[in-house]
């Protein structure tokens, strides 16, 4: 019988499925719940247990990990008679790895504490590839003791794991991450169109650029997307649109100006409005191509 904590996993999407499977590989017992039967079947095939409800998934769990798209979904799975707070045992630890507003995380921690349940916010960066390879960057908000308890679990999921401050701090850092990523992708997309229109060998150009100061994890991860016009979602435009709303609102609340970020937020929104919301965020290239008079 394993002495490792029992884990409930809520949300088995593009990120959640490979992450939960990495915990199974590390020897943890994982009971999962999501709305898609094929994702539950995938978890069971990997050695986990599929639950028929949130209540069933969390009732015996020591640690409850949530990975859902946005604040409304976090609230939906957390509150109400069928939600986590009403069905988790006292003393359980919720690790919310969704990317949501900092205030949602603060509110969840406060409401959970009234039930004797602990919470840390632990959003991630690294996309689908980082989830599969277990090399995610994980930014955490919460109490030191809760972070320390969760750390061995998080180490099975990521490579860079940092406690950034009190509840909500992880989400604030994630918002900053999404700002940097969006601006970086936009700059790369503009460079790609500029290079192609100039007749330069794009493969060679991106290789040499990535070896210098212009190089970045974004360019490394997204270079093939640009070269092959492969926009299969690793992280969807729809979700980055949501995240740009989070960082824009949060920055306004603290009085921080985001002049470039505001422009990129509008470009992300326009791409979504043109029907590309389900594509990978590297599809910002399509927006630049349209502005440059190309058919896409």
From TrEMBL:
GO terms for molecular function: 2-hydroxy-3-oxopropionate reductase activity. Keywords: NAD, Oxidoreductase. It comes from the Bacteria. It is an enzyme of class 1 (oxidoreductase). Signal peptide: none annotated. Its EC number is 1.1.1.60. InterPro entries: 6-PGluconate_DH-like_C_sf, 6PGD_dom2, 6PGDH_NADP-bd, HIBADH-like_NADP-bd, HIBADH-related, NAD(P)-bd_dom_sf, Tartro_sem_red. Residues 168-287 form the 3-hydroxyisobutyrate dehydrogenase-like NAD-binding domain. Residues 6-165 form the 6-phosphogluconate dehydrogenase NADP-binding domain. Gene3D superfamilies: N-(1-d-carboxylethyl)-l-norvaline Dehydrogenase, domain 2, NAD(P)-binding Rossmann-like Domain. It holds the Pfam family NAD_binding_2. Belongs to the HIBADH-related family. This is 2-hydroxy-3-oxopropionate reductase.
